[in-house]
Design goal:
Helix content: 10-25%
Shape: elongated
Protein name: GT61_7
Bound molecules: 2-acetamido-2-deoxy-beta-D-glucopyranose
Oligomer: single chain
Number of domains: 2
GO molecular function: pentosyltransferase activity
Subcellular location: Golgi apparatus membrane
Membrane topology: Single-pass type II membrane protein
Number of helices: 13
Radius of gyration: 24 Å
Keywords: Glycoprotein, Glycosyltransferase, Membrane, Transferase, Transmembrane, Transmembrane helix
């Protein structure tokens, strides 16, 4: 996407405040914090009713606040006379009622239990008061608005989809693009990077809401994004969208041609993408793996996933099998055609992490094969004594920084090609008609 394209995006409201679009500089960001904490990990959510906060209404105003919060994110939907001041991060709901609501604070980023992710997310305050000295509206906007943050772990490919883009889809698709995005902690490069998706969800320019010193008035605002398990679409409140809906949406957004793998039989060899990693969890003998897979009968591409989502999406959609070592690159399975095969190579010790990439294939109607490396395929072999806890009990390593350093940042692989061949053969079998 280039700057010009972003600037001509049409908007009546947005042009005044729109976020400046600058060219995204690959690699120009650093995650401010480590990727996750064990304490922030939970796997099971119970379904819950959506509570309506107390509200009696008098006269013709019917202010409503829905509470869609769950352990993953705080989400409130307000309908009524809503006055939002971006520079003070406050949302006031004018009520005719005598009952004033206890103010609620919300950090609109979907990784609520992770203090590390949340520390740089701006906190918003929602109050509901009888119309005592309501701030005057500078503009009244009839389009519904969604408030979300691009802080947290934004910039990491997995988190961009799991924490923001998928939740944003679940929250805002219902408006069929008639929705205004109010971004707090707005980061130009992030908006620029994901502009194609954002533009498919909203026909308006995106507002950098923090810099607004005026009071914007709305009749419907959602603050926070509906999210549930990582890369899954299980949020229990309607409207219900599935991961298949999300994948179909992405195919439309990026004009991806292949809905299913069934189109290649008799025309060409099955295609395999091996996601290369150069900086950590590297496959040192990647060339041997490529040769073996070619020997089995695949057309093989080994490539690092770049920052241009459009080209990554097209590449991934063109293959029938995607192979990757545990890491953010596997997030790209969302672009695979149905019935494609995902092979995740699991280095030593990572079994104790949440299984981010094992479950989505089921929802996406993909096939999944896990390949756990043996000790002798890992660079950790020989680096620590055999009776070290590094091998015998990875869970004993409590400090995430230490865990990350040992298993994630300093472990490369030498794949046992004849052992891995079995997995590749199985993938080939799965693709047969
Ligand atoms: C909204 O729901 C969440 C989760 O059930 C709960 O923890 C929170 O207290 C609720 N907020 C209000 C203002 O009732
Ligand atoms: C918005 O909030 C800021 C900071 O509290 C305040 O200075 C400003 O007057 C408010 N704007 C309006 C229009 O009320
Ligand atoms: C969504 O918007 C498009 C284009 O404006 C329109 O053709 C379509 O009918 C709308 N869909 C729904 C469900 O409203
Ligand atoms: C590596 O270890 C596995 C499992 O313990 C074993 O089957 C295999 O033969 C070993 N490979 C080599 C090259 O030593």
């Amino acid at each position: 996407m280039d700057n010009e394209e972003a600037n001509v995006a049409t908007s009546k409201i947005g042009s005044i405040f729109a976020v400046r679009f600058t060219q995204w500089l690959p690699g120009a960001f650093l995650l401010g914090c480590i990727i996750m904490l064990f304490t922030a990990v939970y796997t099971v959510f119970e379904s819950y009713p959506v509570p309506l906060l107390k509200y009696s209404s008098i006269g013709n105003q019917q202010p409503i606040i829905h509470n869609f919060s769950n352990p993953r994110s705080d989400v409130y939907e307000m309908i009524g006379d809503i006055r939002l001041n971006g520079s003070s991060a406050t949302i006031l709901m004018v009520s005719n009622s005598e009952n004033n609501m206890t103010p609620v604070t919300v950090k609109p980023y979907a990784r609520k239990a992770d203090n590390c992710a949340m520390q740089n997310v701006r906190e918003w305050k929602i109050t509901a008061e009888a119309n005592v000295a309501s701030p005057r509206c500078s503009q009244t906007i009839t389009t519904p608005a969604v408030v979300f943050s691009t802080a947290g772990y934004s910039g990491n490919h997995f988190h961009d989809f799991s924490d923001t883009l998928l939740p944003l889809y679940l929250t805002s698709r219902q408006f069929n693009r008639s929705v205004l995005f109010l971004v707090t902690n707005a980061q130009d490069w992030w908006i620029s990077k994901h502009y194609t998706i954002l533009d498919s969800l909203s026909s308006y320019n995106i507002l950098d809401i923090d810099s607004q010193n005026e009071v914007l008035c709305f009749s419907r605002v959602i603050i926070g994004l509906k999210a549930d398990k990582d890369l899954r679409a299980d949020h229990p409140s309607p409207p219900h969208y599935s991961m298949l809906d999300f994948a179909q949406f992405l195919r439309n957004v990026y004009s991806l041609g292949r809905e299913s793998v069934k189109d290649f039989h008799g025309f060409r060899l099955p295609r395999m993408l091996i996601i290369s990693r150069q900086h950590s969890r590297r496959i040192n003998n990647e060339g041997d793996v490529v040769d073996m897979a070619r020997g089995v009968g695949f057309d093989v591409i080994a490539e690092e996933m770049g920052h241009n989502i459009d080209s990554v999406a097209h590449l991934v959609n063109s293959v029938d099998v995607m192979v990757g070592v545990h890491g953010a690159g596997l997030t790209n399975q969302i672009f695979l055609p149905k019935d494609a095969v995902v092979i995740q190579i699991m280095p030593i010790g990572l079994d104790v992490l949440p299984h981010f990439y094992d479950f989505p294939p089921k929802d996406l109607k993909l096939r999944y094969i896990g390949y756990s490396v043996s000790l002798n395929e890992s660079s950790l072999f020989g680096k620590y004594p055999m009776d070290s806890e590094v091998f015998t009990n990875p869970r004993a390593i409590q400090e995430y920084e230490e865990f990350k350093s040992i298993y994630l940042d300093n472990q490369d692989l030498n794949i046992d090609v004849s052992k891995f061949r079995e997995t590749i053969l199985k993938a080939k079998e799965l693709l047969e008609p």
